[in-house]
Each structure stands twice: as structure tokens, then as C-alpha cells.
Design goal:
This protein is mainly α and 86 residues long. The chain has helices at residues 2-6, 30-46, 57-71, and strands spanning 18-21, 49-52.
Length: 86
């Protein structure tokens, strides 16, 4: 996955600009979960987005939850600044 994001796709001269996923609509299998973790890692390393071609909303939310947890290292902690509101 990284080679197609950082290099070119099969000697085409072009590289992938995003990661497209699709999971089953009945569940998020163990294998699909592993692929989702790998995709999130690759997206973080290459600064590309992840798109999902999954129909069932609850499965998409499960994907989102995994991506959110994996991506937390990208989100800075809130600044502890004093509040001047009265």
C-alpha cells in the first residue's frame, strides 16, 4: 500500500492519492479490521485520506471509530489557557 502511495502504481507514472476501503455490510471482520488499522497507518504516514465504499451505516461508524482511535496521535492536546470570560 505504501509503495503505491509514495511511488507509482505498476509503472504507470502515477501514484495513489487516497485509500479506498470496502467492508462487508453484515459486520467488520477481523481481517477487515487489520486492513483498516494498516490503512490508517499508511494514511497517517503519507497524509492521504481514507474513503469507504460501505453501505451499512453501523459498519461505517465502526470503521470511523477505529480510524479515530488510530488517528488520535495526530490531534494535539488542547492548550491549557486561562479563561478571561466573566
Amino acid at each position: 500500500m505504501l509503495s503505491e502511495l509514495l511511488g507509482e502504481i505498476e509503472q504507470s507514472g502515477g501514484h495513489a492519492g487516497w485509500i479506498k476501503l470496502r467492508t462487508g455490510d453484515d459486520s467488520l471482520s477481523a481481517c477487515e479490521t487489520i486492513i483498516l488499522h494498516a490503512s490508517t497507518s499508511a494514511a497517517r504516514e503519507t497524509n492521504v485520506v481514507i474513503g469507504s465504499h460501505t453501505i451499512q451505516g453501523w459498519v461505517v461508524r465502526a470503521q470511523h471509530d477505529i480510524i479515530e482511535v488510530e488517528s488520535r496521535s495526530l490531534i494535539p492536546e488542547p492548550l491549557n489557557q486561562p479563561s478571561y470570560a466573566s
